[in-house]
Amino acid sequence: MSQDDNRHDSSRRTFLATAAIVTSAAVLGLRPRRAKAAALPLLSQSNSPLAKSMGYEPDAQNVNRAKYRTYARGEHCAVCQFFQGASGEKAGYAGCQLYPGFRVAAQGWCASFTARS
Ligand code: SF4
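A: This is the predicted complex of the input protein with iron/sulfur cluster.
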C-alpha cells in the first residue's frame, strides 16, 4: 500500500467519523426537542390565567369583539410575531413566546397579537 493510499484511507475514515457524529447529534439533539414541543398542552383560557386575561381563542373567529375592540379581521397567531411556527400556517399548533409551556393554534388569537413585520 502506498503513502497516497494511506492518506486516502485516513481522509475517508475522518469523513465517515465526522458524518457519524453529525448524524448522531442530529438524532439525539433535535428529535427530542421536536417531540417535547409536540407534547406540550394546547393553550386555553381554562389552563392559563394569562390566556384568560388576554382573551385567547383557539379560533380567531370566536374572539369577543365587544370586549377586544383591537381585534381586526385576518389577525391570527400564524401571522403574529410571537408565533414560533411557520408564518402564515393555515392549521396546526406551535409555541408562542408569550405562553411558554403551551402550544397555540395557528388560527388562534389573543389581545397581545402583534403583526409580523
Ligand atoms: S401572542 Fe400572538 S401568537 Fe401568541 S397567542 Fe397571542 S396572537 Fe397568538
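The chain has a mean pLDDT of 81. Residues 1-39 form one domain.
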